[in-house]
Amino acid sequence: MPSPRADRPHMPGGYLAGATSAPGERMPWRRVEELLVTSRNYWVCTTRPDGRPHTAPVWGVWLYARFLFSTGRGSRKAKNIAKNPNVAVHVEAIGEAVTIEGRAEEIDDDAALSRFVEAYNPKYSWDFTLESLRSLGVVYDVRPRVCLSFTEDLAETATRWTFD
Fold this sequence. Notes:
Elements: E1 5-7, H1 29-38, E2 42-47, E3 53-58, E4 60-63, E5 66-71, H2 76-83, E6 86-91, E7 96-107, H3 110-124, H4 130-136, E8 138-151, H5 154-157, E9 159-162
Antiparallel strand pairs: 1-9, 2-3, 2-6, 4-5, 5-8, 6-7, 7-8, 8-9
């Protein structure tokens, strides 16, 4: 997959205007993607029907430039996504921030679910099968529209990655 386009996010006050490196140079896409692949815990942010935010930790996998995760069909996340599929997902990493924003869509295709199981089970020492996965809940595929990344050296590393 080609890398998404890199530019600087807008920050009021011109804080990023003094950056001496190009967007994505000091925290390149390969590092962002490494964090998306190797993170153990992810925070999924959804919106309740009354507009209040909801954030919950999940396990998931980054495959083919998408984030996939499972949850119970009756969970607050699933109920929120049914009403508003726009989500944000943040990796759990010390000193490095990566957040994707996109749209969550339910996966019901056996081939796609099998790829999820094949990536998920060894990562988490789990034993999902297609049957157990289907009976326990739902798998969502989050297609990112934008990704924001930075380190503590914000002015030099803040990057907005835009997907086609």
